[in-house]
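Lecture 7 notes: from sequence to structure.
We start with the chain below.
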Amino acid sequence: MIPAAISGIAAAVLIGLSRAIGETMIVAIAAGANPELTINPFKSAETLTGYIVRISGGDLSFNSLDYSSIYALAWFYL
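Predicted C-alpha cells for the same chain:
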C-alpha cells in the first residue's frame, strides 16, 4: 500500500512545506518588521514569526542569546 502511495505522500510533504514557508514570509512582510511593542492596532508591530525571520537572517553568532531565543519561540508555537 505504501509503495503505491509514495507519490501522494511526497506531494503532500512538498505542499505542506511550501505553505509553511509562504505563510511565514507573508507575515514577515505584512507586519512591517518593526520591533516595537505597541497596543495601537494601526501601527506596525513585529510578530513572533517576523522575529524568527529577522534573527535567523541577521549577522548574529550561533551561540548568542538572541539566536538561541528563536528556538524558545519555536517551542512556544508548539
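Points to note: The helical segments are 2-30, 48-56, 65-77. The chain has a mean pLDDT of 78.
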